[in-house]
Each structure stands twice: as C-alpha cells, then as structure tokens.
Fold these 3 entries.
Entry 1:
Amino acid sequence: MMRGKKLEKRSGNGVFSLTLIKALGLGSWVRFLSSRSSGAGATSNRLKLTAAKGAVRTEAKSGHGVKEQAWMQDRNLDNAIWEALPEELLERVLAYLPLTDIARLATVCKRWQSLIHCPQFLQTHAENSSSWPSYGPVRYSVNLSENGKFHWSGYCKSANKWQKLPPLSLPCLAGKKVWSGAGGLLCFYNRDNVGRLTVCNPVTNRWRELPPMNQKWRWPCVTHMIVDQSRKSYKIILAGNEAYPRNSITYRSQSTEVYDSVLDTWQLSGCLPKDLYLDTQDAALHNGLLYCTAQKTRTQTSDSLSAYDALIAYDVQGGVWTEVSSQLPDSSAYQTPILCGDHLVIVVAPLDNDGAEGRFYLLDARTKNWSLLTIMPQSLHKKLGFWGVCVAYGSQILVVSDTSMLVVVYDMGEGTWQELSSHQADSNFEFITPTIFSPNVNAIP
C-alpha cells in the first residue's frame, strides 16, 4: 500500500482501518468535504459522523501536521463512521492507490470493484496522471491451462526495480502474447496463428476483439500501436513481407494494413517499394513518421543481387513509405531504431557477449548522416550477456539482459552509463517485449 501502510477491511462487522487516510495526509479531507456538502444528504452524513464520534472531541497533531479528532486515531474505526464517509472522499482516497493494489481493491466488495469505472475515480487519475508510474519493458508468461490467466511484470524506472503487476483473468487472452502497446493499452495475438487481435486495458479489464484483417497475415515484420489521447482512439499498423506463406499463390511482399479504432475497420495502405524488405519488428514513431530498418536489393548483373541496409519511414497520415537513409552504421549486427528524447537513435546490438560491445548512433535530421553517440562499457557488456530488449525513457536508454534481467542505462544528457538492477530472471516469465505500459484508466480499447 501507499507508504508501506496496510489497508485492512474486516469481514463481519465491516471495521475498516484509517491507516491509508493518515498515510496520505488526508484526514482533513473528511472535515473539508463534509463541510462542502449541502442539502439533506450532507446534513445526514454530518449527523452520522457526529453520532458515531460520540462526545469525544479531543484533538491531536498527526505526523503530517494535521489536527486529528481522537476518533480518527483509532485504527478500529466504527462501522457507522466508515459507512457515512462521503462518496467523493472515498473515491478520491482509493484513486491514489498504487496500481499493484488495484487488483486487491476490487476483491473487497462489489462497490469497490465498480469504483474504477466511476467518473470521480477517472477524473482524479486524469488530473494526477503521474500518480501511477510507467512499467517497461514488460515480461510475461502464457499459460493455456489457466483459462486466460495472464501473469506479468514490468520494470519500474522510478523505483529502479522489477514489479509484478496485477494478473489479468480474461478468457479472451488464453494462449495469447503481447504484440504491441501504447497509452495504457496492450495488443495481444494468438501465438499459434496471428488471426484476430485483442486490445485490452489491464487496469479496467475492458477489452475488444478487433475485426478480421483484410489479409491472412503469416507474420508481420512491423507491428506498432499509436494512441491519440485527445480523441481516445488508436491505430495499429502491420507491415512487412510475410503476409502470406511463401508457397502460396497469393503471397505478397509489400503489404501494409492499418486498423482505426474510430472506424473499427482494417484498411490496406501504401505498399513498400518493391526493392525494400522490412527486416525488424521494432519501429520508432517521431513527428508522424514510423521509422524502421529494411534491406534494399539491387541487381548487379543479370543473375546476381546485392543488398544493403536502409532506414525507411511510413507516413502515418499519408500512408506512404519513403527511404530516409540508404546506409546504416553497421550491417554486421542487429539494428534497432528508438526515439531518445527528440533524437532518432540506431542501436547496434552485439551478436553475442563475446563480440564487440553495443554501439549507439545518432541520426542528423538535416544531412541524414550517422554519428557515434556512445559505446557500452566493456564491463557492462560482459555482465549483460545476451541482449533482450532496448527501450527509451525520455533522454535515457535502457538495455535489458535476456537471461539475468540485468538493466543498464545510458543517460544521453549526462553522457554516463549505470547499472540499475541486477534482479534475477523469474522462471515464471517466458517472454519479454520492449512495450512500455503506462497505466491509464481513461484508455478505451
């Protein structure tokens, strides 16, 4: 719970602890909100509170410098007082709970289970968007025998540690894996067959199964979700050269398809140039352009082809692919585009921990040339082992080990490397994804 305080509710007599209210320094809210109330209902509430308190009027200073009535200092608060607590106060207090406690909140009673859908609860979180931190990258497990039970955890940058997140129990998620995510939403797909996608808000447990796609995708090379917070809408972009099995007569190598949540439809979009082939599932969105890496082929002679790496971009609004840079820094290793601050960075991951250290290159937006930004220190390179994923938080780049879940960070502003976490891998979590989950009760699947 908040500040290490335990939230208690006892069955039978309904006794509830005021520890949470004290911990948040919200004792004065009881008096403030009661005084704000008007009408017969408010008068009734005040009378109930007065009767429950009895004749005790002793006041004491709390640890937060707030004067408290003696009745507020009693952990075993009388049931009549708790029942008389103004609804607005209850919703505001519970809205400040950490995300990891929301799952337990819903098991207390039906009233609290429905609380996260209440307007006041949603408004409180909209006004205090920083009350819940972001988690990413995300690691998870898929268990077919648990009827959609989804166990997961995320790296909390503000706390510098991995944290288990409330498990999801939705039948629609049985056997599915995380594909992408943004704005508090996660996109899932069936691990055996891409088929139809499911979008879910893990906080509210609301979900939507998307309509069938126009193409029977075998395996898209790029999958990316874009959320428009102002419109409470999102798009999902699929692109690549695996739309159909290669032995199929309907095989297509230039496919792009976009889902729009407002229209609730999939639409075919601009095709990739015929000599470009996407070679990554990672992409970075910047100023309306989705940047990806690709291979470009060209004919040397009548019977031979050569290929080189290139940076390309998809105009989300215009639906057109263009080539940004005809040369990437290092074609000998896996390359990932990420957005760090307002800069596009190519991460060159080592092929193994015995090879060269990871390198990071910065793109000059004007000249389209690359310059070396930093090289991972040898000590961290050896300790990290095989890379799992690489994500960016503002001006910081986090690299996560695939085996030990070690997390190291490069601060672009300071120009420094640091080890953040050496948390050992939990065998219960099979997969890791570069998705950053930012809890949002207002996100609509």
Entry 2:
Amino acid sequence: MAVMMQAFYWDAPKHDNKEHEWWNFVAEKVEDLHKAGFNALWLPPVSKAASNTSMGYDPYDYFDLGDFDQKGGVKTWYGNSAELKALIAKAHENGIGLYADMVINHNSGADEEETNPLDGQKRWTKFNPKSGRFPRDWNCFHPSRYEQVMLDGENFAGFPHLCHRNPVVYTELFNYSRMLIEELGFDGFRFDFVKGFGAWMIGILSKYRYVKDGKEFQPWVVGEYWSGQDDIDAWIEKVNSYTDNQISAFDFPLRYQLKKVCDEPNYDLRNLTYGESVVMKRPQHAATFVDNHDMGDDMIVNDKLMAYSFILVHEGYPSIFWYDYYNNGLARPLTPNGIDALIQAHHKYAGGDSQILHADPDLYVMQRVGYKDDATDQPGLVYVLNNLGDQWSGTSVKTKWPNQRFIPIAWDGKNAPQPDERTTDADGNAEFPAPPRGYCIYVPA
C-alpha cells in the first residue's frame, strides 16, 4: 500500500512566501515526509508557462524548466531545473517517488496571433520558445490539416488546443515525456484535463518503453477526469484498452460524497456503500483524495479528518493535500488524532478486501480482512465512522476474528478521549464505537 502527497496548492509559492523557491521548500520537507510514511509526491507542472508567476497549467515552453529569460523572468514560479533535479534526487534518496503533472491539452502565452487558413479565424498560435524546442504554429492546434475539428474532447478556457495527430506535436510530447522520466527521473504522470483529448494519447505515452537507470521502466499514471461515475468508468475502460490496465483515475464521485459527510449534517452514510465511486467499483484504478488545488471555494470545511480516515483505510491510492497537511495543521504528528496516525494505520494494517459490516444513516463499520505474503504483513482492521453530532455510537458486528483483542490506534471527533479496547467473542462479535462526528480504527492486538 502507498500514499502520495499533492505537494502544492493554488498560489502556494505566494501564500507560503516561497516564490521561485518552491522546489527548495519541498526539498526541506522530504525527510519528514519519508518518516511520516509518504511514498510519492505529485508535483505541479514543471515547465515555463504564460507567466513566470503561473501555476503552470497554461504551458508555453515545455522544455524551459526555469533556465531561460522569458515570460517575465528566468525561473518558473517554483524554481529552476537544478533545484528541481536536487528535489528529485533527495526524494529518491528517501524512498519517495515523483509524479509529473502533464498539461498536454492546451497552451497559452503565444508570441504572435495567426490567421488559421482552414477557417479564417485569428488565434494566438505562434510559439517561439527560447529553449528552441517545440516551436509551434497554427497547424499544431485545432483546427489543423491533421484534424479539422476536435474529435476527441472538450475545449478548455478558450486556449488553443494541441492537435496530437500532427506528427510534430506527437513527437515532441514523446520527447517531453522522455525528458521527464529518463533525464529528470520522474516515476509517473498525472494527466491534466483528460476530457480534452483522446485516451489513445495517454495510452501511447504510458506504454512507451522508457529506460531508467539502465532498465526498462513503466510509469505509474493517473488521469484527471472531472465528472461522474459513469463517465469516469467509461474513460478508465477506454484508456486501459490501450495499456495493461495500468491507468488510474481520481475518484471525484467519492470526494463529493465525502464532502457531504463532512459538511452536510445528517448525510446518510449508506450512500458510501452503493458503488457510486471509483474505489467501490474499480478499487485497483482508484486514486482517492479529499481536496485538491482546483476545489477553490468548494473545499471541505468541517470535520475533514472524517474524510481522510475513510480514504486511508479503504482500497485505492490515497492522495493527501499539502494545504491540509501543513497549512491546516491536520498532520498532527506523534498523536493518534491526525493524518500521520492514519497513514501508519494504512501501511501497517489496511490490507486485504474491504467488507462492510454495518451501514445505517449515521454509522458505518467496515473491516479490512488483512493480507500476508513474503513481503507484506497487514493484519487487517475494523473502521468505524460516526455521523452523529452529540454522542458516541457503535453497534455489535461480526468480524472475521474470534476471541481477538482489539486496540484503538487512530481516532478523532468531538469529545474524543481514547476509546476502550474491545474483545470479540467466539463467533467474532463485538461492539466497536466511535466518537461524535468522528472515527476510530481498531486493530488486532
């Protein structure tokens, strides 16, 4: 089991007073993140964008990592290539992988406006990047001689959209991907706005035979398909038809369910059981999360640790949001009441299938049955989520463990002293409670 961190939030360099120094700032945290149990960092886009104070989701020069004086300065908002390489090296030294944010749908910051001869429309599509790599004109964008209309996806924010069927574009995106994996040392990709282009493009970039440290390397890959369960499910099916089922998707349906759990009083917890999320239907393809840089005014406001407890005990690949961990102070190291304790529970105990033992409008109880092989020993756990605002709640459930003592290792909620130990009877039955508006994780002693 692994845990990633989204190692940025919107306007992070500005708010943390680390403009053009973000790579160095993240590097300072690497050793502590390793100790906390993080396995990977998802970094923001590394290339020079339309401005050197941009988050990077409006790419201009894919091959300028902060070393050319253009778009307002030399460095990106995060730093330069040397600082990025130093961060990657330090992360790898501490056993932490890196995922690159791939923005290959649209571009911005063009140097000239051009008239597209196919439709007579003027657009900002002339790019003369100072890196000297991947210069572009109208034929690299839609409409193009290679694709006169967009066949694969949606427009985004009025930006010019790359035509991936143009051999120049296709080739340069391979060059960019190879640079990220083979030269910089990234370990995977997060593809931005995958609604906007064909799943085949992600498939071929994912299945390229990268060579890293002298060996063939396959990156971990996740797509941002911001939609409902049916749309995401169809996209996962399609993109994995080009691969060996290696592509995951962020679980937006689950995230919106968890927001309701946290921010809507009396939300029915049975909604978590109906399979209307990626993790419930396709757990091996689920990248679960609580909040991210795009949520803006829709961030979860109340009792957010209830949501983190859920994603860290269930299947899927959980992502922790930097802003919650650091700026909101939810890490709470050396206590049983924060994200750090949940990460340890995830690594040490959350193995095997999830089995829902009880669900009613206010109480959810689940067990992970455990998993053991030559490399892994995760004994399993019992997880209780209590939606009531004014009282502890629990119920007797039948677990897989007869005559077993359980101890609480992670919990939080209102009026949440340490829960008592529990012992199952000869049939595996015991009552497992959790504090008001909170959770508790019990593990075999």
Entry 3:
Amino acid sequence: MRLLHTSDWHLGRSFHRVALLDAQAAFLDHLVATVREREADAVLVAGDVYDRAVPPLAAVELFDTALHRLADAGVPTVMISGNHDSARRLGVGAGLLDHAGVHLRTDPAGAGTPVVLADRHGDVALYGLPYLEPALVREQLGAARSGHEAVLTAAMDRVRADLAARPAGTRSVVLAHAFVAGGEPSDSERDITVGGVAAVPAGVFDGVDYVALGHLHGSQTVTPRVRYSGSPLAYSFSETTHRKTMWLIDLGADGAIDTAERIDCPVPRPLARVRGRLDDLLADPDLTRHEDSWVEATLTDPARPADPMARLTARFPHTLHLVFDPDRTDDDPLVSYATRLRDRSDQQIAEDFVAHVRGGAGPDDAERAVLTAAFDDVRVDTAEREAGR
C-alpha cells in the first residue's frame, strides 16, 4: 500500500507578517497532483492542520476546498488534530466526512478504532492518535500517571489490543502528534513540555508497521518505521536549512517499508540568514545569491547604525527580521547572561532565578515541584481556552 504522509500545514499562519495563504494553496495543489501522479492509496495528515484553534475564514475555506479535492480524487485521507488545532472544531462533521473517504480522528477515545483499508495483500488498519494533552485525557484513557509518555502508552495499548484481535497478517499504521526522542525541533513549534519533559521514547510505538508523526517541522527519520514528514513550508528562520518534503511510503505485503521517498514541496521563496556589520553585508559579493530571499539579518556593529532596515532592504528587498548582536568581549556581562540563558527551558530559568536571589541555593524538591506544576497549569489553561472548553 502506498501512503503519502504529510503534517503541520498550519493553515492561516504568516511568516513574519507575510501572508502565506497563497503558498499554502500551492502546496495543496501539489499534494493533490502528487496523489494522482504517484497513485497514492491513502493520504496521512498527522496534525496541526490549522495554526490556531479558531482559524481565519480564508484558512477554513482553503481546508474545505482541499477536502473536496481529496474526496474527488477517490483516495482515502486519514487526518488527526494537533496541538495547534481545536479537536472539537476540526472534528465537526467527522461522521459525514467518513462516507466521503475523509477520516477525521480528533477524539482520544477512538484511538483503538482504526480506519481499515485493503489492497491485494489484505487489510491495513490505520489508527489516528490526536494530540494528547496529558492533563485533559489522562482519566479518559486510563493512563497510570500524568505525562506524555503515559498517555501515549495508554493510547497505544488500545491500538495493540485492537490489532491483536484482527486476522493474522493485518498491517498497521499509526498517526500521532508528539515530540519523540531523537527528533530535532525548530523555533516554530509550540512547547508541549509537561512536568519538565517534552519528548517520549520511540519505543512507545512498538508493535506497528509505520508511525506517521507530526509536530516537529523538519522532515526526519527517528527509526525506519517512525518518521516525521515535517511542515510543507518554513515557519521560522530556524528552518533555513530544512528541505520541505512529504514522505511517500510503500508498505509491503509483510508490513515492511519497501521504499521511503521524500517528495519535495513548492518553495515560495528561499530563506537566508546573514550576519555581520552592516557595511560588510551591503558590499559582500557572496551574498548576491540572497537578494531574492526572505532574509534575517544579524548586525554585529558595536554601535547601532543609522536606518539599518532601509539600507538593508535597498539590497535585500525581502528582509523580514533584523537582529542586533554587537561584537562584545567575553567578559561583557551581557555575553555571560546570554550564554547562561542559551538552550535553557522556562523551568530551568526560573530555578536559576531562585538560586540567584538566594545567593546560590536553588529550589529543593518540593519547590521544584511547585514550579513544575505552575508551568503545567499555565500551559493546560491555555490549551483549554484555545479549545473553547
């Protein structure tokens, strides 16, 4: 069975104030064309269909058009909600859409109920695991404890139980929206850390033939059977080096991955990060190749130059982001402060602050638990408000 795996469309999102709806429409044109040209048997969309819980009307219209086109192509589509989506809103009309071959899986309770497709080798059971916010779904799934690993394990236990009751030789595919250990994040993904832990081990998904992941925006292979498609468009300058693709997976008669091919997505405009003193950036002939790119410029001038954006856009008209990072000596207090903050989580920064005001004594276990609970409560409260609960 040939599967086309994509995720993280983020319909309605912009890129540094540049509207991307036309680029997203071009991607969906490419998706439908690929389905037809490469004779895909199913399309897998692993969450974050929209960029926010209440998307703009133009994004909803684009999504509606895409669903009609996929249904007209006669190729089943299985789609889950991600952490940016409102599961309730995305799931409206799911029962009716099932009859058109578009299968929306947004309810955690349905994790063990697959969409069953068949080819000449037999059945393939496709299980949709929507994004699982631990505090909201733990009781529903009967998870032994809180945390991403626990709720995903509980959902996968339902998958494995259903699969065990099916005829021998039934192949299996899981769609999930999660941060799996070994994946490389970028700046444009929303933090889903719970209790100081964001990632879950790939072993949570043991027992199935292919896992189509969403959430991380770079296309990557965690294991040969566990892959991220990545987002079809870049949504931050941290994705400058990404090659935006979809996975075309050929699932063999025995459940083996016969082939895994990356299908390139259309690029509306390349990204570039340039760094240096303003006069050098304006004169460097090696930067000519970036003059038509979306540019993030980091200026290292010791003093902020006059009219930097106007001067940059004279050469790089699509400059979108300007950063000032003056050259400093290693003993400059601002350098040491930035170094301390680099790659630190919100919780770690808060714990560092406690140690600072106490003259070096960091939080004890009880205080650390209070900080962890506070950060978790804020994130859950945000998730509930965005879901309209």
